[in-house]
């Protein structure tokens, strides 16, 4: 018998159920989903979560076919999203507590024990391989974002369901044949994430603030994305308007006072501030001139009720445009202006106030310069259309610059 020499590496040969990386190294895999400890330590992509995906896929497709044949697929998606609340926020403490009520149970039964595990595996696979790589702006991307969020989700179920929710919406774009199945699954996991977050997170502390922050970012962009995706499926509970989008992007503001002390006391806080400064670039003077012209028009308006609100909102838009150098690159850039506007402005936007709508279109124009993330493509043009569709020719001169920007950056015609 060949004896192992002293000091040589002792290989582990029983890793048939482990991830591919552990198998190749002949080391024991701890089978910890979604990323095993060995891959986490080496900062490598772990494929443990991808085992048996083919069988899971077939199981899920069989479930979809049985749903279609039984007519169960006709259940209104409003049931699955009933717990979102009026503005679709899931996970923001200032909104009504979400729960899996009796209204959501018919939908939950569609994804019972026989199919949920398989479909969840497919969605986590999709998240790890596709969604996570296309979700964050490059300026916010961390080499570990994909693995860190997935790793944290193993300890925080509300985060895991939130990841499955955004993965489901993303899969709607990449798999047209099964898009409706993924849409329903995304809504299901969003409701689950909301219920789990509200029932388990009672305060923010040094232990949980990072996964909570990751959850908030994920939840905000789920609500943003689902506002558009739901239109494809004729969801009667869907609501898309300029005001609803501003409210969604204001979500992180609700936890700002609690989150800021934890963020800025973190060892990497200086890195975050440096990154924000690093992505400043020379301001586009043509854009700033156009925005200043809009601000002047708002100051000249004294007859409209709420003229002071319009003036302060236009001023905040100019300050925001300077802050982002007229080219939003980071999540903090996306949130900043909506977080700073008043509820009075949102109500004016909701009521169809002309100048309020024009201000919003200017924000859309600057946002159209943001990175072409999958959930932003085409959205600013759609929102601008909604904002100006009922405006008369009074604002045509003011709208020249933002509409030109939207056409240039999004390839959208406003004729």
Automatic annotation (TrEMBL):
What GO terms are given for molecular function?
DNA-binding transcription activator activity, RNA polymerase II-specific; zinc ion binding
- Give start and end of each Zn(2)-C6 fungal-type domain: 18-48
| Top-rank lineage group of the source organism | Eukaryota
Alphabetically list the UniProt keywords.
Answer: Nucleus
**The UniProt record lists the keyword Nucleus:** yes
Pfam families under this entry? Zn_clus
CDD domains registered for this protein in UniProt: GAL4 (cd00067)
Where does the record locate the signal sequence feature?
Answer: none
Entry keyword Transferase: no
Record-given protein name: Zn(2)-C6 fungal-type domain-containing protein
Provenance organism: Clonostachys solani
Q: What is the lineage of its organism?
A: Eukaryota, Fungi, Dikarya, Ascomycota, Pezizomycotina
